[in-house]
């Protein structure tokens, strides 16, 4: 269904993501950008902690993908928006812990976020196989 693409002279050394991903078949799911919002109150959780906010974003993305019969393993492209570049390593620690062994392409953008206490916002593109997730 999806496969990591490697090309000579193109690499992402030490990164928790691939240079590129190819997709052969499946249903494409595009998520909105998720912040670490409490689902009941809308308040941002874990104020000041980019690592924990990132983990909450992945929890939300995982729930959306599961609703379509998929999992985090089906992510093919991720865009991370950070309020401040100083939170990059904390966000990457969370990615490494939640997405270990999952190949996906990624971009990170330093940007203003709509929520004043939001440090991280993540959107994904996933491709869910017709028979369900590729989770291993």
Overview of this protein structure:
The chain is 21% helix and 26% strand. It is α+β, with helices and mostly antiparallel strands. The protein has a single domain (29-126), classed as 2-Layer Sandwich (60s Ribosomal Protein L30, Chain: A), CATH 3.30.1330.40. The protein has a four-stranded mixed sheet, with helices on one face. A two-stranded antiparallel ribbon has the order 1-2. Helix 2 links the parallel strand 4 (75-82) and strand 5. Helix 1 crosses helix 2 (88-98).
Strand percentage: 25-35%
Radius of gyration over C-alpha positions, nearest whole angstrom: 15 Å
Query: Count of DSSP E strands?
Result: 6
Number of domains: 1
What is the average per-residue confidence, as pLDDT, rounded to a whole number? Answer: 93
CATH overall fold name: 60s Ribosomal Protein L30, Chain: A
Distance between the termini: 13 Å
Largest sheet: 4 strands, mixed
Helix content: 10-25%
CATH class: Alpha Beta
Q: Give me the CATH architecture, please.
A: 2-Layer Sandwich
Lay out the secondary structure.
Blueprint: E1 2-5, E2 20-23, E3 27-30, H1 50-67, E4 75-82, H2 88-98, E5 105-110, E6 120-128
Parallel strand pairs: 4-5
Antiparallel strand pairs: 1-2, 3-6, 4-6
Helix pairs in contact: 1-2
Structure summarized in a few sentences:
This protein is an alpha+beta fold. Helix content is 21%, strand content 26%.
Main traits of this protein?
136 residues, alpha+beta, 60s Ribosomal Protein L30, Chain: A, four-stranded mixed beta sheet, 6 strands, 21% helix, globular
